[in-house]
Design a protein that fits this description.
The protein is an alpha+beta fold. It has 3 domains: about 110 residues, DNA Polymerase III, Chain A, domain 2, CATH 3.10.150.10; about 110 residues, DNA Polymerase III, Chain A, domain 2; about 120 residues, DNA Polymerase III, Chain A, domain 2. Helices cover about 20% and strands about 40% of the residues. The protein has an 8-stranded antiparallel sheet. β7 and β8 form a beta hairpin. About 30% of the residues are buried.
């Protein structure tokens, strides 16, 4: 079967997220599967399905090995055929034989991945922002991941709550952090559905990502959403409208921030002047942010995790100090709220 190398490589690149290249946790997770005009990859978290109708072969081969081989062939026009023992790739002067892996029941597994027609349209850029806003790095609690319900995406690690208001209503599902990490590499999703225990996403070009969802019963959505509503309605101790200059100061200060546990620490002093500070063994940084002030009797300095502000995006517009602590955490010093027109983050200062 004659095909174009560049077209095959384009499709293989799409399935790479599903190929495990290190220690294989699921049998066959390091392979590429050719089945009924589709190219599949899969691992313990995600499966990727690319429609390639012109390549109607049945074969399973080592994924990264096959991808590397195709990429190094010198000619654009190649022939691919399946023998009893190998996948043969030839052109005018080259012949490569890649050993076929055992099929066992692999082809049967993909029957459950055939999507229904019940797709829900979503905005790909909006979905990507929701993942970035709600993802909590290093979340080791039982609530790790992102929970989707109607037009809300919510995450928590008991000390932080993120809520993002989506442009579309979604089916209800809960994605693990590992799945979120894979999906975050793409921003072209246009459809979603929950199908036979799988959460399936379709890109603009028809590639389908399938992921196992977490058990919805284990996420206290109503409790977390209630905390967000209560805290967002609470009268703050003070409010600061964040400016581009504030974010620029944060970004500059982060170059001198020091690590404390999992935090990247930056100090902010609130008062008649708003000052951003950071220090480590190699030096220190101080900057008074022009145009910002807070009307409080005495200056208040607090240490924050730089990552909470999503400073590189200049994402949040308003910062508030909350008068009371959220009832999901009792051992943190000062509770704060960041918000804009589509997202809220409830978190705490480090000290």
């Amino acid at each position: 079967m004659k095909i174009k190398k560049s077209e095959l490589l384009k499709s293989l690149t799409k399935v790479l997220p599903g190929i495990e290249t290190g220690k294989v946790s699921v049998e066959g997770a390091d392979s590429i599967v050719f089945h009924k005009g589709h190219i599949y990859s899969y691992n313990s978290e995600i499966s990727v399905d690319v429609d390639y109708g012109d390549l109607n072969i049945e074969a399973i081969v080592k994924g990264q090995e096959f991808y590397n081989c195709i990429g190094k062939l010198p000619n654009e026009d190649i022939d691919i055929e399946v023998t009893e023992t190998a996948l043969e790739i030839t052109d005018d002067k080259i012949k490569v034989q890649i050993k076929l892996l055992k099929q066992d029941d692999t082809f049967e597994k993909f029957k459950t991945l055939v999507p229904s027609d019940e797709w829900v349209d979503i905005d790909g850029d909006d979905f990507a922002k929701a993942l970035k806003t709600c993802r909590i790095a290093g979340n080791v609690t039982n609530f790790a991941g992102i929970y989707f319900f109607k037009d809300s995406a919510i995450s928590t690690n008991r000390c932080i709550i993120n809520k993002y208001v989506l442009k579309n209503e979604y089916p209800t599902f809960w994605l693990s952090d590992k799945v979120v990490n894979e999906l975050s590499k793409w921003n072209s999703f246009s459809k979603v559905q929950v199908n036979k225990g799988w959460i399936q996403f379709m890109t603009n070009d028809g590639t389908i990502f399938s992921a196992r969802g977490l058990n919805l019963d284990n996420f206290p959505y109503e409790t977390i959403a209630g905390i967000v509503s209560t805290q967002a309605a609470q009268k703050p101790t003070f409010t600061l409208e964040l400016t581009p200059q504030f974010y620029d100061a944060l970004n500059r200060a982060s170059e001198f921030s020091h690590s404390y546990e999992e935090y990247l620490v930056v100090d902010v002093e609130f008062g008649k002047e708003v000052k951003v500070e950071s220090a480590r063994d190699s030096g220190k940084y101080e900057e008074i942010v022009s145009g910002l002030s807070v009307d409080i009797p005495n200056p208040k300095k607090m240490a924050f995790d730089f990552k909470d502000f999503i400073a590189s995006e200049k994402f949040f517009k308003t910062f508030k100090i909350l008068a009371e602590s959220p009832d999901f955490s009792t051992d943190v010093p000062v509770h704060c709220l960041l918000e804009n027109d589509c997202a809220i983050k409830i978190f705490s200062s480090i000290k």
